[in-house]
Amino acid sequence: MKQYETVIGLEVHVELATKTKIFCGCSTEFGGAPNTHTCPVCTGMPGSLPVLNRQVVEFALKAGIAANCRINQYCRFDRKNYFYPDNPQNYQISQLYLPICQDGWVEIETSAGKKKIRIHEMHMEEDAGKLIHDEWEDCSLVDYNRSGVPLIEIVSEPDMRSAEEVIAYLEKLRCMMQYLGVSDCKLQEGSMRADVNLSVREVGSETFGTRTEMKNLNSFKAIARAIDGERERQIELLEMGRAVVQETRRWDDNKESSHAMRSKEDAKDYRYFPDPDLLPVHISDEWIARLKASQPELREEKQQRYQEEYGLSAYDAGLLTESRILSEKYEETADLCGNPKKAANWFMVEVLRLMKDRGLEPEQVTFTPGHLADLIQMVERKEVSAQNAKKVFEKVFEEDIDPVSYIEEHGLKIVEDTGLLEETLQKILEENPGPLQELLGGKEKVFGFFVGKMMKELKGKASPDAVREALTKEIEKRK
Amino acid sequence: MDLDKLTALELAEKIKQHQIGVLDGVKYVFDNIEKKDPKVHAYLETWKKEAFTRAKQVEKGIADGTYTGPLAGVPIAIKDNICIRGKKTTCASKILENFVPTYNAEVIDRLEKAGLVIIGKTNMDEFAMGSTTETSAFGVTRNPWNTDHVPGGSSGGSCAAVAAGETFLALGSDTGGSIRQPSSFCGVTGLKPTYGTVSRYGLIAYASSLDQIGPVGRDTADCAALLEIIAGHDSKDSTSIDRKDTDFSKDMKGHLLGMKFGVPKEYLSEGLDPEVKESFMNALKVLTAQGSIVEFFSVKTMEYMIPAYYIIASAEASSNLERFDGVKYGYRAEGCTELHDMYKRTRTEGFGEEVKRRIMLGSFVLSSGYYDAYYLKALKTKALIRQEFDSAFHKYDVLLAPAAPYTAPKIGESLKDPLAMYLGDIYTVAVNLCGLPGITVPCGTDKKGLPIGIQMIGDCFMEKKILRAAVNFEAGRGAFPLAAEGGKKA
Question: A390 and A253 share a domain?
């Protein structure tokens, strides 16, 4: 049996997080009743004209700089002509001849180690509207709320060889966009979409096989399944002595199979030409310099800093920086409580656990870092037991309560005076004369039994250390 | 008072002096419309009642100081490719026959602020594609000077309306001569501004890189005053230019002593009607008599102007007209079973022959494999033409040319041979390719009594030079009348 290698290139669409659309002042907010975020421009009314949103260029530049691209300081918009009702002008304003960013790369890390994935180009374009098929009325309706929402399309070189690399690349892009603040990259809302170009070839072969393009991939899992499915389909064809046809295929994740949408022969001629309604975009050296200077700290830099400044392990630093939002919460907590390691433990254990339990995304985590910092300090000062602190934190996580007053009000504070401790100790010793005799007789194992009893009775109002100390003293006294 | 003899500026002045009411001007216009338009058919729609109401409101506005501009109270007609909120805007096409925009073109807002009274929408070639106003889906417009002849195009309705006294002023649009050529055929004055001077927002695009809205009036001063109102930067149009020199009426009266005019000698060779040539040569004498210098020079790119223009204009048009698909507004073919059937039938039934011809041509020159050979080559040709004009403007203040090789042809003659019709645009298209300003001023009539115009072309942003030349030319030429009722017969 021959050995095959999979060759994959990606076209990733990322919706930019601008407040308004790329060529008009309409809101880009997700949702909204159909056709409420529209105007003559984004519904293609006759006589309307596009005006470029400068923020879109700025975001595209930030992404391009972060991905080590060459910036085309003179770039232009082109019209891509095709008829479809979700496209109100029947042309999409995009960039073909002079895209804003070209020839970049990003580094990914997989179980096999680090690898550079080259980026062919990034270009700006507008999103289309949405068709809603009403089966009862046997008609289709169009919602133009998404029409004109800004996108960048990131086209990679065919540098990936496995689903693992593809997922690592996508996660890398998503993380980068989130750190840059240029997109939230939510796959489920369609703000990040990927088309997969895939071919197979015999290991050692220098030339590429015939590729197919796979569309309709809505999750990382679907992408991984589609890649495996397409790889197998192509190998099967080759093994049977048949040829792979260059075509666009649509992935059906429920059936876990794909079907051909259109082949190269009936590929559309988009009749691209420069859009005469828009002027070329000149990007000055100063603009690029300003953006480079104000580029936020990206994940790799943050990870490095956590190791150096906070003394965290590479693994912990990696985990904490996966999401920009969480890492910012973590940093604030660490700085406020003055104990980065403890704060890191809380995030990696409690915060991540609660997020997972409740199925929350990082942007849905809303507690105030100061509240967690207070809680960490109280634990450190032994004012609350670790066990109770965890319970209190659940309240902080869910309702963002102030832990100091909550602990006070619910009587969870560890008692400072020894009155209660002494009283409880006497009570427990009296109730358990048998074990007491054993302990006095030198059976050290029973010590733990009494500590447990005490802790249970005190409901965390005393620290285990204080209990141990009091018990030791009392036993010494009675010996 | 004989309103036939008043210019728009004079009318507005008399309104300010209380010698005449706003309503009187509007009534005069509607009297002429009722008398002449059944034959001329300059208008697709007029709104008399609304115009009367507006007239009264403007009258009050002038009295209370709301409207102080030089054209307040003057009636104006609008070419039907310019959007007016709540009014049908059809581009003289079946595909938009019931389209009512919910927004105003920027120029309409500016006219309203300046206190003009909009009286209706004028006929045109469908989507401004044509040189005779015969490609309108709603009937031809006739030349008021002789109703057997065309008024020219594509702003034929606007120019005929001014010539017939059916309005004082009109807005047209000019993509390849669509203001300057019908102005010549109808014996009126029409100006195409420097590209970017007037906002295109709300102008339904034919060829975006060439389209400009411009004024049509009874004389040069009227055009200058109207241009001053509609010109100015508009943030809704990316190609709009922030010009500081839009006080076009200023400095017009300066003399022509020493002004240098250039005439491309190739423009006067074969193909130019002898009567038009004679009239044009006489016009040159009027200019030299005022102390200006007229010289002839050679234009080597002349034979490439028409091909470059038709490739670029059609390419842009093929894309601009894609939005007319029956999905969102306008005409939709009935009884369609699926999407592509609907697209095809809607566009087959909705567009006229000339529009379809240009969509096909434009789609062809943009398609893969032909893009470099046609579209890119046309852009390179355009750059060469621009270079030639640039060097001409190093030597001359203003270039002079006929507006058309002949006077208005008879109705029904032009569409038989589209290529011959395209060649008739030879003197006007280069101005659009280079973004230059150009004005047509009447300079005479032929033996049949049909008007002839002279075209004055300036370098970019040099409207003031061509306006000065035109005003002084008018003074030397003497009064030029409106079209005589029923037209003069040879």
Answer: no
